[in-house]
């Protein structure tokens, strides 16, 4: 049986205290970018700047799944109120390394994200999948969302702007 991992809400002090976390995250983000199926160029510098900014924001929540001291998955969400009295959250990215794409690992990371957002007073969490990793992974993620109480609410679309 595989060693069970832990979930940690990443903050700026983690990036300073554990430099290997930075490298793990940059590798995972690059892997996500290459698997996502979109024709964009990964920028390690931009990814690093986004990671630093995200880890010091009160509105961006960056949870990571760690096994044996290595980050092998992450979920990024942000909270907002905008024109509403209630706070809502949008999950932007959910990624697990292929070797950890099992029900237990994904469920633990997603449940921890839900708990984190609940602590922030979030009323609704919007999430889904617009990656093109593959149909099996997308269906598995949607099934996990449904098992954790999410309801289908339309579909996502993508448009490439040609310059």
Task: Give the SSE map.
Blueprint: E1 6-9, H1 12-17, H2 19-35, H3 44-55, E2 60-67, E3 70-80, E4 87-96, H4 103-119, E5 122-126, H5 135-147
Parallel strand pairs: 4-5
Antiparallel strand pairs: 1-2, 2-3, 3-4
Helix pairs in contact: 2-3
Describe this structure in words.
With 163 residues, the chain is α+β, with helices and mostly antiparallel strands. It has a single domain (6-147), classed as Gcn5-related N-acetyltransferase (GNAT) (Aminopeptidase), CATH 3.40.630.30. It is 40% helix and 23% strand. The chain is built from five helices and five strands, in the order βαααβββαβα. The chain has helices at 12-17, 19-35, 44-55, 103-119, 135-147; strands at 6-9, 60-67, 70-80, 87-96, 122-126. The protein has a five-stranded mixed β-sheet with strand order 1-2-3-4-5, with helices on both faces. β2 and β3 form a beta hairpin. The protein is globular, with a radius of gyration of 16 Å.
Number of domains: 1
Identify low-pLDDT runs.
Answer: none
Largest sheet: 5 strands, mixed
Assign the CATH superfamily. Answer: Gcn5-related N-acetyltransferase (GNAT)
- Gross CATH architecture: 3-Layer(aba) Sandwich
Measured by DSSP, the beta-strand proportion falls in 15-25%
- Find the structural class using helix and strand composition: alpha+beta
Described by the principal axes of the CA atoms, the overall outline is globular
Number of helices: 5
